[in-house]
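job 3f2a | input accepted
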Amino acid sequence: MKKVLFLLVITAAGQGIFAQKSGKGWTNLFDGKTLNGWKKLSGNAEYTVENGAITGITSLNTPNTFLVTEKEYGDFILELEVMMEDTTSNSGIQFRSHLNPAGNNGTGRVYGYQYEIDPSARRWSGGIYDEARRDWLYPLGLNPAAQPAFKNGQFNKVRIECIGHNLRTFVNNVEAAYVVDSLDAAGFIALQVHSIKNPEQAGKKIYWKNIRIKTTGLVPSPHLKETYIVNNIPNTLTDAEKKSGTVLLFDGVSSKGWKGAYKPGFPEKGWEIKDGTLSVLSSNGAESTNGGDIVTVKEYSAFDLTFEFRLTTGANSGLKYFVTLKENNPGSAIGLEFQVLDDKMHPDAKMGRDGNRTMASLYDLITAKKTERFTRPPGQWNIGRVVVYPNNHVEHYLNGVKVLEYERGSQAFRDLVAISKYKIWPNFGEAKQGRILLQDHGDAVSFRSIRIKELK
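job 3f2a | predicted structure (456 res):
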């Protein structure tokens, strides 16, 4: 009897953390032997069971293939382990997802939230992608501290927490992504085998095992205040954001906290607050001749600022920072500018040097290195982000992807200023603190979800 008990202990220990944590409230989604409770959708890749793991096998010339739970789930915590053979491709785990029967020429197309599995050099495992719909919601470049967590050549622990609007992911117990989104309240869970076109990638295997779910008594994992939160519910803050010190610069209904750049109060014309948006109205491209720029009442030094903007066709605007108003110049007030522009239709995109007046660039100084995939056209909302660290390192992001960085006040920065339109302003961009500005460039542009966290 003692020998039997000893063997049981060794076996349990060998099964790792899932065996140790199994207990009340958890339900296994995979019995370790069969694919009971699952069905294949969309593509023709193969799924089988090998050594206690669901095994997906890549296949040429087929759309993304998904092994889907027969049940749907709303709020839950999902845990499993995953390993990939190929480090040049990717995979994913769908959650709160759905099927469009008409997609893929009538064979069906899966869409919805996806936990990214990315063993490539990009290292975005744990990021959140919106399959066949909105593209990336949380590229893992937003949380560099979590990028090394996924280990190639071994099983990695996955944890997905969906509680209300809060979607959170973990890689080997490291908090990876945090998205607040209200598009889907429930849906199926699925294991993805990605489509491939390279014959060398055919026949590669992805393994998933120890798949279990909990749907009652859900307790969220502790949140690290350093982990960036993507909040897609306009003009709101989660409790986690509030605890981290994030505040709204625009409450969605009033001009509180803003005033005209060279005025005692908010402009009486030229700006409109409606349907949760703060919009500068068109004056046929005449810069600062209608309502004029608006600035925050408060000044900031080091901060993490996120804002959403929606362009009309051919529009030009900008978000400026470290605006002091000391220049008292005609036209738009002076400051470092995150360019807001329709690159395809506005002529300013072709001016300056090497594209340094295009969307998300540090206007007239540094070009934003971006791809069209991460640029949304006029009529859609883009997400801009400016981070100024206490050491004067500055980063610009567009739709979750870092597009430039620089050192404010460095010699390299001053050299760029010296060959720019700002060379006439002494110590341009080097003020210790300044206001945030939204520009009236004479074109209709809307803003919302303007959030800021001061950095110490």
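job 3f2a | The helical segments are 2-14, 17-21, 103-106, 239-244, 411-418.
job 3f2a | closed
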